[in-house]
Fold this protein.
Amino acid sequence: MTDMKKKKMDSATVISIVIVLALYVLVFVAEQIIPATSMLFTVIKKGATYALVAVSMNLLNGFTGIFSLGQAGFMLVGAYVYGIFTIPVVSRMDVYQYYSGGLVQFTLPVFVAMLLSGLAAAFLALLIGLPVLRLKSDYLAIATLGFAEIIRALFQWDKLGPITNGSNMLRLFPNFNDFNIRNANGDVVVYLSTLVPLLIAGVCIFVIILLINSTYGRALRAIKDDEIAAEAMGIRLASHKRLAFCISSFFAGVGGAMLAMYQTTVQAKSFTTAMTYEILLIVVIGGIGSVTGSCMSSFLFVACSEWWLRFLDQKQVIGDFEVPLLRNGFRLVVFSIIIMIVVLFFRQGIMGRKELPDLIRQLQGKKAKGGASK
Amino acid sequence: MWNTVFPYLLSGISVGGQYALIAIGYTMVYGILRLINFAHGDVFMVAGIIMVYMAASGVPLWLCIPLVLVLTALIGFVIERVAYKPLRTAPRMSAMISAIGVSYTLQNLVLYVTGGLNQIYPTIPWISDSVTIFGATTKMVTVITPILTIVLVVALVALINHTKIGMAMRAVSRDFETSQLMGIKINRVISTTFVIGTFLAGVASVLYFTNYTTVIQTSGAMPGLKAFVAAVFGGIGSIPGAVVGAFIIGIAENIIKGLDIILFKAGIISGPMGLATFSDAFTFALLIIILAVKPTGLFGEKITDKV
């Protein structure tokens, strides 16, 4: 079952942790051997970013039952805060060329800026939460979506240009490639540009997992199952919902900062509702209420859209036969159809509400059949 | 002053009428299924694309328009049967996610067909002609839209209040299960609702794209969202509410688009403020205010929660 209230970790949890650590070692080794231009690393970087945002959305939609569609707005805030505070002072004249260098004339360290991204998003969530969290299901969804659109317009406003650079893009801030360790000549000695984003996402997701398995997380699940019953059991609805909303937005903000690093540029107009929909679909494919599912489906989603299904966008000739229908955009059509099939026929998604340790326990259970059961 | 405001007001009324036609689809579907049909805006966009391709293939325009309307209604029918009917007993969120999936699919399909390029909407004679009213030059469509909207809404309200299917719709929206027990064929009622809703979205697409002249896969998203906001603003489930909400939103949006110039001419501000950026955002601000103050909208019925 999903509740892990045992005092000692059981073997399945240990095995899961080992698997995850092994994956990290694998990525580290791969990065040193395989050329840095490989699609594999692009997928891992973007996948890690999406995984974090998807898990943060899952915390709300899957575990608390708050159906929020404001993720893109919080990511936008995170990405902008990160960009604004990390552009080197020397480059500010280039970036803010229409606003004579901008207002902010200092630079924060990367990790401090990322933390600030999260905090800014969380603070905004606190403000937005006051009116929005009183609403029910679909009204809440549409109100959060509306707030995301308002934020997007605000960041493009010309009058805020000295801070946000108006509708122009922010660029030249440190990106993932700056995590590589270089020697005096500027040659890369140790490649870390893929491992570090994966680590950041991993640490954040680990914190979310700890939270979900705490008493607090159980309270959230109670709210999801039945608000009125939860309230009757002494769970304070308003404060729990508010906290869940803020925490989710915090990690969406950090995810936004990671997205900024991945893209190397930030522009408000790209954080549309379509982005939120994409993340929602990732959560649905992975299974609403499963952290493992969200992570797996993020990497699958990114790998399919950026890498494995790319061939569908180009002409393919097998022998003399030219495969029909293949041209630009076909990949997305195939992709949408797969998503619709999942939504209609496999409503549980990949994992349902199961996590990695549950899977391992299932396997162990099959082996142990006939033998002594625990 | 009036001369500055009037053109914006005029186009606001026109856009408001187009939003109203889309909003009716939202509000009717929500009234019956309690589902936000996120794909509705994209059906509206697809209607535009069909028109573009049909006109390009040489079908005469007078035949195009009825064909587009019929095809759009058919698409609405098919979407309901394929994507929403299987989820009728599932939790409400599943149907909403399915609607988002349909929206994603429609957009990607159109992206594939058009190659992601802006498509030029065919010029429909007469309604694309220029006219001058009270000194403001505009297209004929601007004048026709509000009139056509009112006519269609009156016809629709008559249908709902005075026909058998209309009575069935009212019954289903009041109580889904009981009306089923009373022998109402629920699936037929729901299909009819979708057909009417998408038909009106088709009409709206002809009017809207005649005005904006280009269609691309994302053109349905914003009008769709705004029409939905209009439906919520007027009280979701209420047709007159949706129409009033749509006109308010259309007018407000267009006034804000010209607010810089209006305020400048009135001498209130001395330079451009870039307020036009907020023309879309204002709609959502309005939504949040109405949800905070009167969550059931202007004309909505009061809902009470039962344990």
Notes: Chain A has a mean pLDDT of 87.
